[in-house]
Design brief:
The structure is a homodimer of 260-residue chains. Chain A has four helices and 19 strands. With 260 residues, chain A is mainly beta. Chain A has two domains: 48 residues, Roll (SH3 type barrels); 210 residues, Fumarylacetoacetase-like, C-terminal domain (Fumarylacetoacetate hydrolase, domain 2, Alpha-Beta Complex). In chain A, strand 1 and strand 2 form a beta hairpin. Chain A is globular and about 60 Å long. Chains A and B meet through strand 7 and helix 3 of A and strand 7 and helix 3 of B.
């Protein structure tokens, strides 16, 4: 089932996508999805950020090649994580499918995409085993962890490098029926494939992260966990369009625009 | 004016504290504070976390002695920040005044308080000058940035070390009339003063942080900025009570309890 957060005729609602139509539902994402009997053509709705999390989690370094390439670019020895230490991103930076990624006027050319799987929590959870962990996941969407590499390396935190406004496109919708092992992620820059990788080829998978996190913290409905990316990224510049596709979920597409 | 988020007779509302009474108001913290005509005795209400932020910001290293002492404890050279790089904490960890800080069963004895001033944003803000920055602040409260130092040093992020459930007491209420330069912070462990410092003796003050942040990110009503702490902390153990007092704001008090 494919859930979307939409604006239609000036009003926000959740809806379930059925072919080229969206069946509008009552209430929020976790209220059961009771239908209103109304539908809207998918082509006529504006897709919004699927959910604003209470806490915005991000795995960071979670694919081997990305760890190696990141270390090489930064001129330091690679350090493969030996346990799932979750990190954070910031809600101010979230934008929806098709919204513009604004490149700050003082950012460098090292302005890059990172295509990521995003798990969305559906059930309040603490102390869950790895075996049972996926039962608290509502569904999956796609994220683009936009990063300015000079700020990422030079600042004490990731505040500018990864969390400036518009740096966290997420969408286009939430897919609840997902076979993690069958997924493939492809990033396209202006229609050209720049990387394709098996989505689930992670150092620590979704279940391992959730189980480890839940030992110390409570996960809440709507919390999101961005699962990291693979390989090395290319630079994006104003005028470009960056797409992240994950098979079985969809395509997240965003244009890059220069800050005025 | 002193705003509190309260539970009274099983219902949540905001209220304005007047002496030993709370005047209940309609709506949220930023809705104007229209009175309901009802009051409740302050002694009979449960104080809740004053606000749950959209983004939870934290300055981290922002007082000279704390930077020096932290480096010394960790056995490395001190690195005084030369610019206000804001960091983050996580909403799952928030608890209210008088609620228990739960010490995880596998945490070490290096389980410590950090008494902090907290600025609460009242107005959506981007691109604000340092001169005008305090105009977007709604008021101030108090935070205790509880930290498990072995996890803080050994994990790749601050997820366990600073963001385990209950590690972020915040309260007891929000004071809107504050003269930053006159404030003094005192931390007490079981009634004994362990540190007193001028609250505003920061490397980068509230206005400087807000102005720098707003160059790249939008601040939203309810966002909180924890401003860091001074000096070196002592260990807390189950059975202890930790109080953080900031003159003119109030006292945030929390017992420490062992994880079951």
């Amino acid at each position: 089932m494919r859930w979307a957060n939409i604006e239609y005729n000036g009003e926000q609602s959740y809806g379930i996508i059925e072919g080229d139509q969206v069946a509008l539902v009552k209430g929020g994402l976790f209220d059961g999805g009771e239908g209103t009997g109304k539908t809207a053509p998918l082509a006529d709705v504006k897709l919004l950020v699927p959910v604003t999390p209470k806490t915005f989690y991000a795995a960071g370094l979670n694919y081997v090649e990305h760890v190696l390439e990141s270390a090489k670019s930064a001129g330091r020895e690679p350090n493969i994580p030996d346990k799932p230490d979750i990190g954070y991103r910031a809600n101010n930076a979230l934008i929806a499918h098709n919204e513009a990624i604004i490149k700050p006027s003082d950012s460098t050319e090292l302005f890059q995409y990172e295509g990521e799987l995003v798990a969305i929590i559906g059930t309040q959870t603490k102390h869950i085993s790895e075996e049972d962990a996926l039962s608290c996941v509502f569904g999956y969407t796609i994220g683009n962890d936009v990063s300015e590499r000079t700020w990422q390396r030079g600042d004490r935190t990731f505040w500018r490098g990864k969390n400036a406004d518009t740096f966290k496109p997420m969408g286009p919708w939430i897919e609840t029926d997902v076979d993690l092992d069958s997924l493939e992620t492809t990033v396209r820059l202006n229609g050209r494939d720049v990387i394709t990788f098996p989505t689930n080829n992670m150092l620590f998978g979704v279940a391992r992260y959730i189980s480890a996190m839940s030992r110390y913290l409570t996960l809440y409905p709507g919390d999101v966990i961005w699962m990291g990316t693979e390989g090395q990224s290319e630079n994006m510049k104003p005028g470009d369009v960056c797409e992240v596709e994950i098979t079985g979920i969809g395509v997240l597409s965003n244009p890059i625009v220069a800050e005025a």
